[in-house]
């Protein structure tokens, strides 16, 4: 069935339900925990669809995402729609009780689009025009792309906005990956307009960018361009603003499609984030635009403890969702296809991964993808229905996990209880990643991961927070990499300490303002009141160098650090550790400052392992936090409901462990008292306080 599009189509004659503030913040179905994944039936003959759907029912699938890469089939020629196949697919899924997350296909425009509008191609920073034949999008500031994207989205929303199978809308796919910045003429024009709105005048722009340096002063708006490759380092303030603009341009594309959907549908709208894997999108801003937060996560196959990174991504996703339940939109049943070494998941690992996400706040567990692709770039990517078919281990585990998830429906809607917060600011990371910083060895992601790993090992559940957010609920806040601190953030952190909080700040923090300009008063000046110190000079170390520290409380261990040291100036803080040698020998290395009812800690070097633990354990005492006594590589998270709590324990070891719990097993209905046994490689879900705990043996 086909029709012709001529601009924006008229509204449906039967109208539409109110949207906006009344839009649900969760799919209208299915009940319980959603389970399923991306379904791409256009890759298969239509006679395969019935087999697929029957197998989905067997596996416990109740939600699938469709249409995400199907623009060329939905609109085979400009203005001409062919939706008959999608009509039949939605009816088939609905008849089998499978709900649909309907995608807009705008992440991959058709060949005809680029042939007609070659100016819409993305241009790289070096001037290279990126061609067709891969995944990705057109230039986000291209007016031709915006018009075409809104047109196809409007057509889908008009057709399926009230379809009973459609419970959620899925706009685009993984904004910022692989395209985040575009240096085309259309992007340059949009960047200038964005700067006009942000700064108002060229005088304000010149002041913010510090253009007096290297004679970069602008006298005409038309002279302001994108920060393309230049003979030397480009103005860092311009680079930072271009990162902000690029994120804004992507978000404007999302808003345009979302609003086209909302004109015809009351179903919630999302787009799949990549919380820790796509650094170009500021998800604090993006989360305000979606009705429900969703995330894609894939293990780092090179990391044998990748489950810690998985937990971090889940905690970050929950945090940008404001603590509300969220959707795990994609993860893998086994190996992915795009890492240097695509390690297959071991028996039981898929379930541990999925239920860790659930334990950390996900109320939907979905995979990429349903049926493994025979062709294309992702043909070696694992799937729920692998190339080996229903006789495979992966298929059996998919069915077992589906049965387990179906028993956990009552967990839906409960919230995770966090013990501490870690500061996370995408704009600060963008600024720190620019050229000509004091040391290439000091990496913000490594610092965040090191702190998170220590908190994870100590059994503390973590929320992530923006430096300007309300932090009053957390007894402990850690700032691993807050290079860029606004005046408002500095006031917020100082007030947090004065009110009784414990703040731990790591080196190379509090350095610049929102324009990447060093704060008046020098390094760490905005946090001087909270920390009782400033930094006179950075003293980065040569590659491979280490310095030794000595604790002032007489502890015998003499920890070593690397990469970095500071010349710290005391302004009332007490010295907890001093440098024994190195460029800051004899000077303060770790300090603690009493301020109001709280304490501010500063760590002026890169500590890892036991040395980092020693500092954080001292800070726990200030915050009144207690470390877990569970074995290494066992994680326990609590979800709190209106009437009962749920304890989710995941055992990543090869031996059974006992975890404190009182309640009922959610599968067997058996009571547990005092402790519950978590099998080797297993997961336990316990309803506490009334009845339920469930052991899922995934070994």
Polypeptide structure, described:
The protein has 699 residues and is an alpha/beta fold. Strand 24 and strand 25 (645-651) form a beta hairpin. The longest helix has 27 residues, at 236-262. Helix 14 crosses helix 17. The chain has 17 helices and 31 strands. The chain has 4 domains: 2-10 and 29-113 and 142-180 and 266-412, Glycosidases (TIM Barrel); 185-225, no CATH class; 420-623, Rossmann fold; 634-696, Golgi alpha-mannosidase II (Immunoglobulin-like, Sandwich), CATH 2.60.40. It is 28% helix and 20% strand.
Mean pLDDT: 94
Trace the largest sheet across and list its strands. Answer: 7-6-5-3-2-11-10-9-8
Number of helices: 17
Task: Give the CA-CA distance, first to last residue.
Answer: 49 Å
Write out the CATH superfamily name of the largest domain.
Glycosidases
Structure summary, number of beta strands: 31
How would you classify the helix and strand content by structural class? Answer: alpha/beta
Query: What is the CATH first-level class name of the largest domain?
Result: Alpha Beta
How large a portion of the residues is in β-strands, by DSSP E? Answer: 15-25%
Indicate the radius of gyration in whole angstroms. 26 Å
Give the overall shape, derived from the CA principal axes.
globular
CATH architecture of the largest domain: Alpha-Beta Barrel
Poorly predicted regions:
1-21, 690-699
Biggest sheet layout: 9 strands, parallel
The tally of structural domains comes to: 4
Helix content: 25-40%
In CATH, the topology of the largest domain is named: TIM Barrel
């Amino acid at each position: 069935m086909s029709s012709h599009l001529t601009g924006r189509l008229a509204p449906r004659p039967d109208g539409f339900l109110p949207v906006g503030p009344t839009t649900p913040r969760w799919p209208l179905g299915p009940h319980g925990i959603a389970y399923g994944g991306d379904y791409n039936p256009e890759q298969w003959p239509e006679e395969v669809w019935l087999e697929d759907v029957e197998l989905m029912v067997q596996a416990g699938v109740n939600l699938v995402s469709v249409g995400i890469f199907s623009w060329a089939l939905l609109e085979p020629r400009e203005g001409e729609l062919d939706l008959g196949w999608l009509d039949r697919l939605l009816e088939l899924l609905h008849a089998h009780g499978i709900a649909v997350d309907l995608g807009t296909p705008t992440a991959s425009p058709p060949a005809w689009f680029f042939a007609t509008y070659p100016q819409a191609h993305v241009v790289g920073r070096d001037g290279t025009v990126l061609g067709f034949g891969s995944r990705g999008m057109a230039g986000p500031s291209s007016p031709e792309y915006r018009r075409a994207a809104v047109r196809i989205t409007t057509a889908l929303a008009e057709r399926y906005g009230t379809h009973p199978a459609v419970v959620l809308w899925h706009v685009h796919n993984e904004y910022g990956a692989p395209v985040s910045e575009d240096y085309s003429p259309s992007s340059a024009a949009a960047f200038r307009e964005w700067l006009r709105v942000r700064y108002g005048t060229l005088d304000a722009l010149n002041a913010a960018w510090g253009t007096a340096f290297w004679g970069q002063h602008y006298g005409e708006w038309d002279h302001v361009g994108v920060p393309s490759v230049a003979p030397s380092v480009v103005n860092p303030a311009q680079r930072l603003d271009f990162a902000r603009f690029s994120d804004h341009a992507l978000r404007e594309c999302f808003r345009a499609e979302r609003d086209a959907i909302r004109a015809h549908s009351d179903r919630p709208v999302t787009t799949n984030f990549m919380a820790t894997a796509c650094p170009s999108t500021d998800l604090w801003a993006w989360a305000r635009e979606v009705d429900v937060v969703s995330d894609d996560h894939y293990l780092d196959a090179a990391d044998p403890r990748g489950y810690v990174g998985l937990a971090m991504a889940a905690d970050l996703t929950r945090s940008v969702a404001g603590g509300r339940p969220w959707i795990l939109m994609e993860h893998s049943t086994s190996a992915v296809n795009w890492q240097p070494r695509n390690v297959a998941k071991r028996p039981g690992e898929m379930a541990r991964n999925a239920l860790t996400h659930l334990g950390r706040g996900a109320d939907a567990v979905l995979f990429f993808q349903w049926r493994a692709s025979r062709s294309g770039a992702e043909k070696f990517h694992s799937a729920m229905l692998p190339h080996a078919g229903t006789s495979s281990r992966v298929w059996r585990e998919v069915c077992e996990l589906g049965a387990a998830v179906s028993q956990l429906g009552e967990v839906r809607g409960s919230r995770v209880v966090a013990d501490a917060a870690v500061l996370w600011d995408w704009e600060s990371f963008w600024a720190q990643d620019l050229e000509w910083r004091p040391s290439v060895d000091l990496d913000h992601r490594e610092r965040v991961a090191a702190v998170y790993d220590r908190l994870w090992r100590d059994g503390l559940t973590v929320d992530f927070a923006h430096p300007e957010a309300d932090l009053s609920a957390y007894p402990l806040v850690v700032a691993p990499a807050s290079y860029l601190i606004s005046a408002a953030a500095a006031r917020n952190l100082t007030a947090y300490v004065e009110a009784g909080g414990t703040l731990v700040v790591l080196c190379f923090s509090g350095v610049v303002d929102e324009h990447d300009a060093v704060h008046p008063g020098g390094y760490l000046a905005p946090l001087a009141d909270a920390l009782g110190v400033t930094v006179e000079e950075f003293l980065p170390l040569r590659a491979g160098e280490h310095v030794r520290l000595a604790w002032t409380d007489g502890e015998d261990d003499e920890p070593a650090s690397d990469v970095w040291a500071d010349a710290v100036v005391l302004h009332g803080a007490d010295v907890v550790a001093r440098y024994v040698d190195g460029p800051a020998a004899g000077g303060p290395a770790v300090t603690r400052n009493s301020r109001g009812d709280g304490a501010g800690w500063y760590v002026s070097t890169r500590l890892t392992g036991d040395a980092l633990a020693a500092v954080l354990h001292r800070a726990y005492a200030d915050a009144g936090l207690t470390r877990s006594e569970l074995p290494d590589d066992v994680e326990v998270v609590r979800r709190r409901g209106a009437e009962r709590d749920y304890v989710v324990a995941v055992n990543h070891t090869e031996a059974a462990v006992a975890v404190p719990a009182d309640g009922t097993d959610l599968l067997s209905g058996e009571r547990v008292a005092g402790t519950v046994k978590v099998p080797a490689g297993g997961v336990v879900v316990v309803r506490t306080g009334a009845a339920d705990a469930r052991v899922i043996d995934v070994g």
